[in-house]
Amino acid sequence: MSSITRAQLASGLRVVTESLPSLRSVTVGAWVGSGARDETDGEWGASHFLEHLLFKGTETRTAGEIAEAVESVGGEMNAFTTHEQTVFYVRVPDRELPLAIDILGDVLWRPAFRPDDIDAERQVILEEIGMRDDTPDDLVHDVFAGALFPGHPLGREVLGGEDSITHMSRATIAEYHGSHYQPKNAVLAAAGNLEHDQVVALLEDKFPAHGTAVPTREHDDFPDAQRVVAVHRDTEQTHVVLGMRAIAALDPDRYALTVLNQALGGGMSSRLFQKVREERGLAYSVYSYRAAYDDAGFLAIYAGTAPQRVAETLDVVQAEIARLIADGGLPARELAAAKGHLVGSLSMSLETSASRMRRLGRSELVEGEVPELDDVVARVAAVDDDDIARVIDRVIRGGTTLAAVGPHDEVELAGHLA
């Protein structure tokens, strides 16, 4: 019998809980279905700004009082922003479930937006942008996204830009909050030693009873991707990301692409790690990863290497891409190993109330359901040779985009591409 229970309140808020009686903690997360791609040009960075601001104070609590309330019972709180969602969560001992929901309800729906808090957090975000710009192995991923989706919100940095954050007014932030932070645009996910009915009762007391419509997310056509983009830095390494557009979050081939990504660059036994690091010693860090959105996605490969070895590194990476295309699939041993890793790591990754909450919230928000773990395992296990061949045709054969941060320029890098 499933320990996952779902409900929808009269306000439109979706609630999903998982009862885990063996634990002594609960994690409660509020998943807002808006992020960086939902911002207008004048709002660029507002989602991330709100991530910072909501814990800065409410109508009845200061930032210090919020932090003390959670930490004085041994709890923790945090938040994160992506292109399509903003998430706030609190993890506390199970007996403090009412406190966690009270805090979340307060910060989500009743932020104070005090001018002094806004100005202080504005400086914190500008420092965060500066730190990102000074960290080339972080910056290169934003450069890659901008090259892959030029002129589109999916290609813009979640943090916002220095100019947009500097000039963002209190009114802009408050208006964005008012239009996007609505019960109909949110999921409340909770996991741990809890009872579903208790969670619902607490939400009905602390969360709004009514909500308004939320803005519709635009799904515009994507402009052509750029071939090469380089940001010059006098660094000891050149950081490169080579990748291509891929499939959307709910595409039926998502499990096959996840398996393919694992075999390509998902771990120490992957092709890229073995070829680039173990056999050639070209990089300390090399891996592949995928991202998926409502209507798009990408598959990308990262490596950091000495400037004089960039050409050799790109040659090896492109040779592995070409080998996938030529073979049209994976050997049985690699396919089995990739699926085995994913199934095993999924089980081990869900051993805390926080990880369980994340699975619940993302699944409900993105998929509109929370599949049983056995169903997810079965979908991964069912990936076969035909599925891998199909995603190779759909994704790997597409045109590639190269982003780099280091001492190279675009013309020089373009000469190293196949």
Keywords, separated by commas or semicolons:
about 425 residues, alpha+beta, Cytochrome Bc1 Complex, Chain A, domain 1, 2 domains, 6-stranded mixed beta sheet, 5-stranded mixed beta sheet, about 45% helix
Shape type: globular
Taken in chain order, the helices and strands follow as EEEHHEEHHHHHEHEEHHEEHHHHHEH
Mean pLDDT: 95
Percent strand: 15-25%
Count of separate structural domains: 2
Number of strands: 11
Major beta sheet, strand line-up: 1-2-6-3-5-4
Structural features, described:
The protein is of the alpha+beta class and 418 residues long. The protein folds into two domains: 4-206, Metalloenzyme, LuxS/M16 peptidase-like (Cytochrome Bc1 Complex, Chain A, domain 1, 2-Layer Sandwich); 228-414, Metalloenzyme, LuxS/M16 peptidase-like (Cytochrome Bc1 Complex, Chain A, domain 1, 2-Layer Sandwich). It has 16 helices and eleven strands. The chain has helices spanning 46-53, 63-71, 97-109, 115-133, 136-148, 162-167, 170-180, 196-206, 254-265, 271-279, 310-327, 332-348, 353-367, 373-381, 385-396, 410-414; strands at residues 4-8, 14-19, 25-32, 76-81, 86-93, 186-192, 228-232, 238-245, 286-292, 297-305, 401-406. A six-stranded mixed sheet has the order 1-2-6-3-5-4, sandwiched between helices. Strand 9 and strand 10 form a beta hairpin. Helix 1 (46-53) crosses helix 7, helix 3 (97-109) runs parallel beside helix 8 and helix 9 packs across helix 12 (332-348). The protein is globular. The model has no long low-confidence stretch (mean pLDDT 95).
